[in-house]
Amino acid sequence: MGEIYVGRTEEFGERDRKIIAQGNMEIGVFCIEGEFFAYENNCVHQGGPACQGKIINKVEEVIHETEKTAHGLKFSETDVHIVCPWHGYEYNVRDGRHPGNKNIRLRPFKVDVKDGEVYVHI
Fold this sequence. Notes:
Blueprint: E1 3-8, E2 16-22, E3 25-32, E4 35-40, E5 54-63, E6 70-83, E7 90-92, E8 97-98, E9 101-105, E10 108-114, E11 117-121
Antiparallel strand pairs: 1-11, 2-3, 3-4, 4-10, 5-6, 6-7, 8-9, 10-11
């Protein structure tokens, strides 16, 4: 198992990403609230560049507590998603899983931060 240098932590802003290449594979590295996550840039739906899509908070339906009726939509305060630009498949940035089917997942990679430098293990 090797590691790839991605960059320094200060090179990443909040909700920032870098796409790095390793041979024929691309890896998306994300910074969310100071934490780093990495996934293969390959949407499980049809192979699109999932890691290059929009970074947006998950859209949730607001359900009235007692009436159990819909009252519009809101953005989640905690769940951040990436949206594949080809067909709109969404994945949670923290675990790489599709919100509608937990068995659908981007291929994850371990990320380490050492002395302010970000590395991905492949």
